[in-house]
Amino acid sequence: MVISEQVGCGIVSAVAAKRFAEEFASTLDKSVSVSLKSGVRLIGKLVAFNQSDYSLWLADVTSSDGRTAKKLFVAGSEVSSIEVLERGPELDSLYERLSRTFPNMVKYLRDVGVILVMDRIRVTKDGVVEGTGTAAQRVQKIWEEWKKEEAERQQAAGT
Asked: Whole-structure pTM over 0.85, yes or no?
């Protein structure tokens, strides 16, 4: 019984670690506010991070003391907290369209901006980011149609 409990904990731990990494990765290319241990607050776009120590590369940075930088490296050991300031695009209409094509096989993970099709094809605002085969190709085609319509809708709203 002790062995199965240890194995079960290992599986849960691996799932938690994967979810943490996915959540952190979802902040890429978004505006964030980074609080440092020194009390300084940085606002910028998260363009890269090191998963081993959570060091960050920020772009178009403004600090709470008024300084600016085009790009700034922040050591992970100096980070106290990270707040996402920008939400991803709403993918509701894409989710509905995919649900019509793949009934009962689509999940929308709104908090991370991901649509999961057939538990193996991941779609974001940028298209299919994970998955292969004919189903993934179909999902990519649906995404391309949706993206074109969204661009047309935004252009019409802007005029």
From this structure: no
